[in-house]
Specification:
By secondary structure, the protein is of the alpha/beta class. It is built from 30 helices and 16 strands. It starts with 21 loop residues before the first helix and ends in a 9-residue tail after the last helix.
Length: 791
């Protein structure tokens, strides 16, 4: 090893922002200032040119060559003082990069976007580039367009009115097997692919498909090495003109790192972080706007950390600075690069280590949105939970807290061996995966139970459009059981429809939208000779989302009590008032709002309904298998932007007192403003849902007033609350610690409150960066909070 590997990089001076070093404070300032930088125009040009030049090639080869073109043309920019080479520009609407199948949109950051429309004009790209880009994509229909064109009419109708959405396409969620590169390096993996390619039978049809696969991964392996070598040359050039000898030494060592990784296994802690980030950059080259999870970062970094400490090459302070560099790079890419900490080893012992705490320290110090989760089990050190709870109490919306006992049981119930289940991580927002061993297909479709109930209440018609979606729905129901049976019957049929549409996209993607980069980094693909989207991974599940849990539970509870038990409202009167969006009947809306039980208040009469509807959905999904023989993994995760911009606007007024077009409750959260009896009661309601049936994951956000953490015992009280929640069966929890007054101040004076961070759903964001509807949704969730909040 070169002697340069012992260069000291730590700048011990404290910055004005607290514990940050001068280097990290400067890098943080640059990252925040460049939060909305555009994608470089050369990326779009390179991809278009590559696709035009490779029309005769199989799609896997075309996509591999497009990755090569993107990496070869990327402008190499290094921020002053940065210790890791590579940058993924902040994703903005403007071009689709390589992923021609999907117009990526993020309503939280770009409120002017809506389904089927991308505001290319607002991207700060060169003159004339937007027009040429639009014209090119108009000439080339992507996979989403082709799928939609062939969609059955009944599915198109159901999706149009908001019963479900289903594409079956995996778009951006991925967790490569970082350990593959850390243990073997790209060149060794390439050699295996070449050996397997040479062994194929030239006339066998299945081997012909495998031949294309191996050729595609060899292309991307070469692209990975080429990209790192480009960076090595760039860093040498920067070092040659660097006047500061200290910085010159850093640059030369970084160049050496890029010559080492990912071609060969990393040798030091600094090198392994460089390898991890280059892999992320390469994944982003395949899917522009990717959600590449870092997986269990503290686990695979730990051997390098310990070795460097023992050899005197590293100190804890240096390691922290390097992790902060990595986290700031993640932030610049609209961070969905999930990092999971703590938990258990494959043998079931506690996996918490010093890097678990270092990563939490970095999260706390940087105070930028960062997707971090902490796994807790009965053997976790109490200080891990307390430290994580303390950071969450600072108002970051992070970290998330995961219950190992529930998650591991959920995964083993669907056939994942316990040793692999103990390796779980989250991907994207909160979707569960086995890092580097799953196909990452986590968002195949989403079912909106509230819309199903709306159709049953309205003789099968959509209240918003009048579209007839269901046939044979009675105009009246004699009993609640009759209504509920009808609702369940049609929900089961619509779930089957969504699965069928999901499967159609699944088969389509296996040939039309392969992922050679992800396949090259996923366990099982080299062995099987199949793309990760064609069943090549070790496990091939498909995540499926559930929307509207609290809304449908509250609505069914109101109907049961007020229509059929107390008979204060007739069924016909209810249908009429819902169709008119309560026009002239605010009295009836208030009756539904205030005289019927609401999920989130530890009321068994409504909590039981929520638990039963989730269990029903999970049991229906469990009846089906993916085209590759994998299992469907139920996921209780209703994305807030979809609830606000898509699903909510497509739902008419509902029997829980919600007006037409208003947002739906998010994921497993109570309806905003309806959990009124304290955090403990809310947690008890949520824990009544059997989440061992949801191996896909769950999202639950608890809103707390800042005073809940006041005083010397505040953090300990919240940590105990989480522990009790997990003991009762909770799977995942995150918290927002902001009151309405704080958020109103941020609305009124945004320039003075850019530091205010909130958990929106699967991501955290600067509150002032959200558009007004999302801001109001977050505020509504906190409205019932007050000082002296009841825990």
């Amino acid at each position: 090893m070169s002697s340069s590997s012992s260069v000291v990089i730590h700048d011990a001076h404290e910055s004005g922002e607290g514990r940050l070093t001068r280097r990290i404070a400067a890098l943080r300032e640059q990252a925040v200032a460049c939060a909305n930088e555009p994608d470089p125009a050369e990326r779009g040009r390179a991809v278009m040119r590559s696709y035009d030049e490779t029309r005769a090639d199989p799609m896997a080869i075309r996509r591999a060559k497009a990755v090569t073109a993107a990496l070869a043309s990327a402008t190499l920019v290094l921020d002053d003082g940065d210790l890791l080479a590579g940058r993924v520009p902040r994703r903005v609407p403007g071009h689709q990069g390589i992923h021609e199948g999907y117009w990526y949109k993020l309503p939280a950051a770009y409120p002017d976007l809506n389904s089927g429309s991308v505001a290319l004009e607002r991207s700060p790209l060169p003159q004339g580039f937007v027009e040429s880009l639009r014209a090119w994509w108009q000439r080339h229909s992507g996979p989403c367009d082709k799928l939609a064109a062939a969609r059955p009419e009944h599915a198109e109708r159901a999706m149009r009115v908001g019963v479900y959405w289903a594409s079956g396409l995996d778009i951006v969620h991925r967790n490569p097997r970082f350990e593959m590169l850390l243990e073997r390096g790209v060149l060794d993996l390439r050699e295996e692919a070449a050996t397997r390619l040479d062994a194929l039978n030239l006339v066998d049809a299945e081997d012909a498909a495998r031949r294309v696969f191996y050729q595609s991964v060899i292309i991307v392996y070469d692209a990975m090495v080429g990209f790192a070598n480009r960076w090595a040359k760039q860093l040498d050039a920067l070092a040659a003109v660097e006047a500061d000898p200290f910085r010159c030494g850093e640059l030369r060592q970084m160049a050496e790192h890029c010559r080492q990784v990912p071609a060969h296994p990393p040798r030091t802690f600094w090198e392994v972080l460089q390898a991890v980030w280059l892999i992320v950059c390469m994944n982003e080259a395949e899917v522009s706007g990717s959600a590449t999870s870092l997986g269990r970062l503290d686990q695979y970094l730990q051997p390098f950390y310990q070795a460097d400490l023992a050899a005197g090459r590293l100190t804890r302070e240096v390691a922290l600075e390097l992790i902060e560099c990595l986290f700031l790079k993640c932030y610049r890419t609209f961070d969905f690069h999930y990092t999971m900490l703590g938990g258990q080893t494959v043998t079931g012992t506690d996996a918490t280590n010093e890097l678990s705490y270092l990563c939490l320290d970095a999260l706390d110090a940087l105070r930028t949105p960062r997707a971090v989760g902490v796994r807790i089990h009965r053997g976790s050190p109490p200080e891990l939970l307390r430290r994580a709870a303390d950071i969450a109490g600072h108002g970051l919306g992070r970290p998330d807290f995961w219950n190992d006992e529930v998650v591991i049981k959920a995964l083993t119930r669907v056939g994942i061996p316990v040793a692999d289940a103990r390796e779980y991580s989250a991907i994207g927002c909160v979707e569960l995966t086995i890092p580097g061993k799953c196909n990452s297909r986590t968002m195949g479709h989403a079912m909106n139970l509230l819309k199903v109930l709306e159709l049953v209440l309205n003789e099968g018609r959509c209240m918003q459009t009048g579209t007839q979606v269901l046939q044979g729905v009675p105009a009246e129901f004699a009993t609640y059981d009759d209504l509920h049976a009808c609702y369940r019957h049609h929900a089961a049929r619509l779930i089957r429809e969504a699965v069928e549409e999901d499967a159609r996209g699944y088969v389509f993607q296996s040939t039309e939208l392969p992922f050679p980069v992800l396949s090259a980094l996923t366990e099982g693909c080299l062995q099987s000779g199949r793309d990760v989207m064609a069943g090549g991974a070790t496990y091939n599940p498909a995540g499926v989302n559930l929307f509207g849990v609290a809304n449908v539970a509250d609505s069914l509870a109101a109907i049961s009590k007020l229509v059929f038990e107390e008979r204060r409202v007739t069924f016909a009167e209810l249908r009429t008032v819902l169709n008119s969006d309560f026009e002239g009947r605010e009295d009836l809306r208030q009756l539904l709002l205030t005289h019927a039980p609401k999920f989130g208040n530890d009321d068994d009469s409504v909590d039981r309904i929520a638990a039963e509807e989730v269990a029903f959905y999970c049991s229906e999904i469990a009846k089906y298998s993916t085209p590759e023989g994998g299992r469907y993994h139920a996921l209780v995760f209703g994305c807030t932007p979809d609830s606000v911009y898509s699903m909510g606007p497509k739902c008419g007024a509902s029997a829980d007192g919600r007006r037409a077009g208003k947002p739906l409750a998010t994921s497993l959260n109570p309806t905003p403003g309806q959990a009124k009896t304290g955090a403990t009661a809310e947690l008890k309601s949520v824990s009544k849902v059997d989440l061992t049936n949801t191996p896909g994951g769950v999202s639950y956000i608890l809103e707390l007033h800042p005073t809940a953490l006041d005083g010397p015992t505040g953090v300990g009280t919240v940590a105990s609350l989480f522990r009790a929640f997990f003991d009762q069966g909770g799977m995942e929890i995150s918290i927002n610690v902001l009151g309405e007054e704080d958020l109103r101040n941020a609305q009124a004076h945004p320039q003075e409150h850019t530091h205010v961070l909130v958990r929106v759903f699967g991501f955290s964001a600067q509150f002032t960066s959200l558009d007004p509807p999302l801001q109001e949704y977050v505020i509504e969730r906190t409205r019932q909070l007050g000082r002296g909040v009841i825990l």
